Amino acid sequence: MTRLPLKFPLGKRSFLTLAEAGPADAASLLTHARQVARESDFLNAGPGERALTLAAQTAFLRRLRANGAGFVLKGTLGGRLVAVLSLVRPTQPRLRHRAELGLTVRAAHWGHGIGRRMAAVAIALAAARGLRKLNLRVRADNRGAIGLYQALGFSREGLSPRALCVRGRFFAEVMMGLCLDPPPTGA
Ligand SMILES: CC(C)(COP(=O)(O)OP(=O)(O)OC[C@H]1O[C@@H](n2cnc3c(N)ncnc32)[C@H](O)[C@@H]1OP(=O)(O)O)[C@@H](O)C(=O)NCCC(=O)NCCS
């Protein structure tokens, strides 16, 4: 069973720590969101476009915990937040078997296996918590992210044209999904 916090060696001298974020992390998550919006053009919000307040972020994290409506994982290196993964689950009975995944890693740390580690841990946690389907949407030209999700078992479920409009240019989004099934019981 996957239990948090988890520590993974990264390179020769550092460790990636994965832990569940709570309301006390709201400010650092907002800072992270502002930073990644400047570092990547693939996200839903560009620099200065995300209007979430500290109070709203804190309330969101509190609600997630209270309702079992998913979780946010924080990835830290030497105490510094470098990656965030969210799994948000609807609470309605017909929808609560599924969750939507979002993942961002600070640009200085791309390509070191952080995204892959976090997503693999999130998938294991989701399965352990009884989730049966993970969904995500990714800009169709984000080849790195699509390659990562495919390597983790996600498959392409559809294409949504004109899903994003960035500085007047339209981009399609690929919808990807991963079914999670409990291991067969007994023989
Ligand atoms: C996409 C993202 C989350 C990947 O995180 P990461 O820590 O850099 O990824 P990893 O180092 O774990 O790479 C895992 C795999 O992803 C793929 N990958 C990652 N970056 C890639 C790139 N720039 N080009 C091609 N493949 C890439 C590779 O398949 C890699 O496999 P490998 O380990 O066999 O080389 C990160 O680059 C990021 O935050 N980008 C900006 C925000 C974003 O696009 N988020 C996804 C929105 S849906």
How would you explain this protein's 3D organization?
Strand 1 and strand 2 form a beta hairpin. The mean pLDDT is 95. It is built from 4 helices and 8 strands, in the order ββααβββαβαββ. The protein has 187 residues and is of the alpha+beta class. It has helices at residues 26-39, 54-67, 114-128, 143-151; strands spanning 6-10, 14-20, 70-77, 80-88, 98-105, 133-139, 155-166, 169-179. It has an 8-stranded mixed β-sheet with strand order 1-2-3-4-5-6-8-7, with helices on both faces. Helix 1 (26-39) packs across helix 2 (54-67). The longest helix is centred in the middle third of the chain and has 15 residues, at 114-128. The chain has a domain at 6-132: 3-Layer(aba) Sandwich (Aminopeptidase), CATH 3.40.630.30. The structure holds coenzyme A. Coenzyme A is lined by residues 40, 42-43, 103-105, 110-116, 136, 138, 142-145, 147-148, 151.
Give a list of the ligands. Answer: coenzyme A
Q: Kindly state the mean pLDDT as a whole number?
A: 95
CATH-assigned fold name of the domain at 6-132: Aminopeptidase
How many E strands? 8
Distance linking N and C termini: 22 Å
Largest sheet: 8 strands, mixed
For CATH, the homologous superfamily of the domain at 6-132 is named as Gcn5-related N-acetyltransferase (GNAT)
| Oligomer description | single chain
Structural class determined from secondary elements: alpha+beta
Could you state the order of secondary-structure elements as H and E? EEHHEEEHEHEE
- Radius of gyration, taken over Cα atoms and rounded to an integer in Å: 17 Å
Order of strands, main sheet, comes to: 1-2-3-4-5-6-8-7
Low-pLDDT stretches are: none
Task: Provide the β-strand percentage band.
Answer: 35-45%
Return the CATH architecture of the domain at 6-132.
3-Layer(aba) Sandwich
> What is the count of helical runs?
4
What is the CATH class of the domain at 6-132?
A: Alpha Beta
Shape type? globular
